[in-house]
Design goal:
Layout (H helix, E strand, L loop, with lengths): L19 H12 L2 H14 L6 E5 L5 H8 L3 E6 L2 H10 L4 E4 L12 E7 L8 H11 E10 L17
Parallel strand pairs: 1-2, 1-4, 2-3, 4-5
Length: 165
């Protein structure tokens, strides 16, 4: 885990634990880092979605990416397995679409979305291939997928991506 940020014992079962507040604090801290913000913006570029396109952000957490995508006219829906995260996303971004769902089982019709995005999620899946099978099911022909996971050992406050290269 990145140094100097809030500490969290585990991501699993956050909704059923007392760690929801700490996870939200950790997500906020990570999302505030310049290199993470740059990476998030790059993920939107890679999706290449036009206004009116449909997208899912799986493992949406507190909803930042859904709000960003919606601000460009994309019909974005955020999915997270944690009720605590979905509740926080709804509070932070009222009027946007946030629902309970997992990477392995999304309540989405087959071949119905043009964009699939997941950030900081696949490294925590027990069987990532099950999540990828679900991507294959929900993504429309010609749709795009962007999966972003971070190397937390290289994240330090104040460091920019160019300092890693």
């Amino acid at each position: 885990m990145a140094q100097d940020g809030p500490r969290l014992s585990s991501f699993g079962g956050v909704g059923a634990s007392n760690d929801a507040e700490r996870l939200i604090a950790w997500v906020d801290w990570i999302e505030g880092l310049p290199q993470v913000n740059d990476l998030r913006k790059r993920s939107y570029e890679l999706l290449g979605l036009a206004p009116g396109a449909t997208a899912v952000d799986v493992g949406c957490g507190t909803g930042r990416a859904v709000a960003d995508l919606a601000s460009t006219g994309v019909a974005a829906t955020g999915y997270d397995a944690s009720e605590s995260m979905i509740e926080m996303a709804r509070r932070r971004f009222p009027g946007l679409d946030f629902r309970i769902g997992t990477a392995e089982r999304l309540p989405v019709e087959t071949a119905s979305v043009q964009g699939y995005r997941a950030e900081r999620l696949y490294q925590h899946l027990t069987i990532p291939a099950a999540g990828l099978a679900e991507v294959n099911r929900v993504l429309a022909l010609g749709g795009r997928i962007v999966i972003v996971d971070l190397d937390y050992d290289t994240i330090r406050p104040g460091r920019r991506r160019s300092e890693h290269q």
